[in-house]
Amino acid sequence: MAYRTITAEQLTPRIGAIVSGIDLTAPLSAGQVADLHQAIADHQVIFFRNQPLDPVSLKRLGLHFGNLQAHALKGLPDHPEVRKLHADETSKHVAGEEWHSDMTCATKPPMGSILYLHTLPTAGGDTAFSSMYAAYDALSDRMKAYLEGLTATHDGRLAFGRFDPTGSYPVAVHPVIRVHPVTGRKALFVNKGFTSHINELPPAESEAVLDFLYRHVENAYFQCRFKWEQHSVAFWDNRCTQHLAIWDYFPQVRSGFRVQIEDPDLAAAA
Question: Which residues form the TauD/TfdA-like domain (predicted)?
């Protein structure tokens, strides 16, 4: 995996790399953008150190990969595409504290998300990522055949209803097995955070199959775990990964900003 303008240090054989040799706070060249596109395709999630971004530079970075997508929850007043992620001693919940892919309740889930953290606890607050390529590949041929052609309903109320029970949240239907539009690889596309049921199965069977798949994607052999430092950045491909924000640092502060990138290739992914 050779790149012209960056270096990528692989974290695990299946997922994750730390990218160096680039300044994300500055405008990027066409060559740098091309290398980052290739790196995200190669590694599914890429990480950067010492990148002191702000909402403006974070949006500029995200726009190299597609239009920015507003989140179901509110963004910043001056930058509605940017969502503040903040946890402290008053928090009752934190975003992403169970395995999920971002906003799969949307008709067009994001291609990816870029998260920048500027304030961190003294210990803890890691994020774990799991490869849905690896999860799919590890299934038996019989299970792959069984899941092929099934669809699942993804309901935003499952993830966001606890924050605002009176809110109106999107609901969408997606294939259980998704073909990645760039790599052509198959990936599992159900997650505990948003998926309510498999549409073609009776309720008890749907529940049993989803419970198996949710436990399956948590296999440590499919994962990498990122230890954040101040001004670190994570950029993940939402189409082939799940992630978990580990809330083990209460009551300390963990804070930053995130953008989501629209998926320009959704029509080719089904």
Answer: 9-255
CA gap 175, 155 in Å, rounded: 14
- Distance in angstroms (rounded) separating the CA atoms of residues 149 and 194: 19
Question: In this predicted model, what pLDDT tens digit does every residue of 37-60 receive, in sequence order?
Answer: 999 999 999 999 999 999 999 999
Q: pTM value?
A: 0.93
CA distances from 90 to 85, 98, 250 (A): 14, 20, 9
Q: Look at residue 2 and tell me if it is in a domain.
A: no
Known catalytic residues are 100, 102, 243, 258
Joined together, the tokens standing for residue 123 give 């210990």
Domain, as residue range, for 79: 7-264
Domain count within the chain: 1
3-state secondary structure of 40: helix
Residue 269 lies in a domain: no
In a domain, 60, yes or no: yes
Point out which residues pair with 9 in neighbouring strands. 18
